Each structure stands twice: as C-alpha cells, then as structure tokens.
Amino acid sequence: MTPLRLTAAGASLALAALAGAGPARAAAPATGRAAASAPAVPVFADGHGLTVVPGATEVHSPTDFTITVTTKQVSGTHRIRILLPDRYTADPDRRWPVTYFLHGGGGTVDDVAAAPALHSDSMITVVPDGGLKGWYTDWLMQNTAEGAANWETFHLSQVVPFIDASLRTLPDRAHRAVVGLSMGGFGALHYAEDRPDLFGHTAALSGGIDFGMWQIRAAVLATELNVEGAWCAVSTSANSSGSTADCTGDGPYVDSDAIFGSPYPVLNADRVWKAVDPAAPVNLAKLSHTAITLYTGGNDIIDAHTEIASRTVKTRLDHLGIPSRLIDYGDGSSLAPTCNGGHNYGCWAPALADYVPRLEAAFTAVDEN
C-alpha cells in the first residue's frame, strides 16, 4: 500500500497522527444572546460581502463578544469572536493593532477562551470561524456536502477589511498579526505567505506546516473523510473535560480531493498541495519582511510530526537568511507545569502567554520608531 492510499482505518490512524488539529474545545460561554440589559458593544454594519445576522450577537462581556455573519463565499452562518482591550471604549481616539487567531480542526471560535493571553489590553484579537475542516483555503471542489467553501477569500478579502471598517484598528501590516494552532498553524503561515501585504507577524503552534510530509497530507484526508474517532481516543484536548463524549467530528464526508485536489505525487497530480505548501522555499521566501515564530512540542503521536515540520521550516528559513524563532519545548517541562509536550491547550496556552507579550512589544516598537 502506498503511504497515501488510505482506507478508513488508515485515515483514522493518520488523524491520530496529526489532523484532529487542535480542537481543544473550550467551555461554551455561559452568557446567551445579547439582550437589552447586556453591556453595549460596537455596532457592526453589513459590508465587504458580509451580512450581519440581526439578533445573533453573543455578549460575554463588554470586551468579549461574538457576531454572526453570512457570506456567499462560505455556506451557512459563521461566528466571529472579538476581544477588545479594556480601554477600547474609554479611549475613543486610540487605534489598536489586530491579531487574527485561527483555531484548529474540529474547533470553534470559542476555543480562544482556553488561551487567556489572547485577551490583551494592547491589541484587538479577532477569531473568525475556520470551519471544522476548512483548512484556511479556497477549496478545489465547491459542490460537496459543505457547499461553498472559499475560506481564504472569506477571511482575507472580507473579514479583514470588515474589521478595519468596523473597529478602530491600525490597518497596516506592521500592526497586524495572524496566529494559529494545528490546522490553524497551517492557516497562519499560509495566510502570511499568501498576503504579506496584510500581515507583518505570524506564529504557528503545533502546525501542519509541511505538506511534503505524507503524514500531514494524510491528516487532511482524514478530516475530509470525517474520521474523528482516533483523534478523540488519543487527545486530551478534544474538549475542556478530556471526555470523548463531546467529539463532534469534522462535518460531513467529502471527497478526498475536495480541498487541495489529489494528494498523490504522480504526474504532478498534487500540484495544488505543492503550490500552497507553507514549507516550500518559494513560499517561505515571501516572509522575508515578516516576523515569524514557531512553537511545537514533540511528546505525543501528533506533535512528533509537527516537531519535524517546524524544524524543517526553521532550517529552510535559515538557509534563506530569513530570521525566525523556533521554540521546541519537547516534553513540555521547559515551558509550563501544565504542558506534557502534547497537542493540547495545556501547552498552547502557556506558549501563547510567552508569545503575546513579545508581539505586543513588537507592535509598540513600530510606534516608537
């Protein structure tokens, strides 16, 4: 059997190897829909291809709320969670840097609650819905059970300008970052490469960032085939309690070529995979003026592969003469007591707690120069 010719059982193992890609479902917010007595939050108007769903805003606090939008680019309704600095309202003349946080496969915008550092007093954090298996790209197939699936267009051509039009942002690459974990780690590096005009900073945590690895390609296939059981069985980050009872899967089954086309490296059939591969030198070269940070553990069946991918990206960046920072925390003992070196928020939360102050300092340094 060739490495990528997956049966359902093989796909299940592949998913265990990487793909469940960070669901770490944080506890759902206790608050319900916005009501008349709820704290006031900014008003968002339709624009940039997005239609705001009336009455669907969830207010968790005056600086933490979720709006719901629709777009022709991606079927269904989609939530965008927004975290504002505490002084956003009190300081009406100030504009703020923005960080986009991309959740992992099987996750939701509410996963951000598991990483408190992202609720910063120095920047706005925006968490757009990335789908259970959106993979932060415009799908090759638009006629699957998922319907329209132009995730990259939704995020970069619609959400980013929509946020800049709706909030007091500093709308330039020097004040804009894209950060993601697992599937979102791919998204963060891919978006930074595809749109260096938008993002001056990027960070990938335990990212599926080397499509030259058959294990990572197999992981994408496993999400397409909705093989969720193996992920739930091996991951303590499947949900906030560690129970497998809440595993929701990766959405409906779709063709294994739906997202990036054929994964088989025969007669250039895998040309889309190669074109979007974050680890490809031609793509890494686009990051020559971008601040790059990579985090990974190496102590479970998933991060054993993200560790290899992260080291490959770091080595290639070094060869290109592009500065970057790699934090390989191995078994987690050097990072935090909560971290076991695995694919979970016990590691990602302290990794983000390390990263966010560095990002805040970089934003401040731009203003001082």
Essential attributes:
10-stranded mixed β-sheet; alpha/beta; single chain; 369 residues; disordered N terminus
Mean pLDDT: 88
Radius of gyration, in angstroms, nearest whole number: 19 Å
How many strand units?
Answer: 10
Q: What's the tally of helices?
A: 9
Q: How would you classify the helix and strand content by structural class?
A: alpha/beta
Description:
The chain is an alpha/beta fold and 369 residues long. It has 9 helices and 10 strands. It has helices spanning 8-19, 151-166, 183-194, 214-224, 229-234, 271-276, 281-284, 303-320, 345-368; strands spanning 51-52, 58-61, 64-71, 74-83, 98-102, 124-128, 176-181, 201-205, 291-297, 325-330. Strands 1, 2, 3, 4, 5, 6, 7, 8, 9 and 10 form a 10-stranded mixed beta sheet that branches. Residues 1-36 and 229-246 have low confidence and may be disordered.
Summarize this entry quickly:
The protein is of the alpha/beta class. 30% of the residues lie in helices and 16% in strands.
Topology of helices and strands:
Layout: H1 8-19, E1 51-52, E2 58-61, E3 64-71, E4 74-83, E5 98-102, E6 124-128, H2 151-166, E7 176-181, H3 183-194, E8 201-205, H4 214-224, H5 229-234, H6 271-276, H7 281-284, E9 291-297, H8 303-320, E10 325-330, H9 345-368
Parallel strand pairs: 5-6, 5-7, 7-8, 8-9, 9-10
Antiparallel strand pairs: 1-3, 2-3, 3-4, 4-6
Helix pairs in contact: 1-4
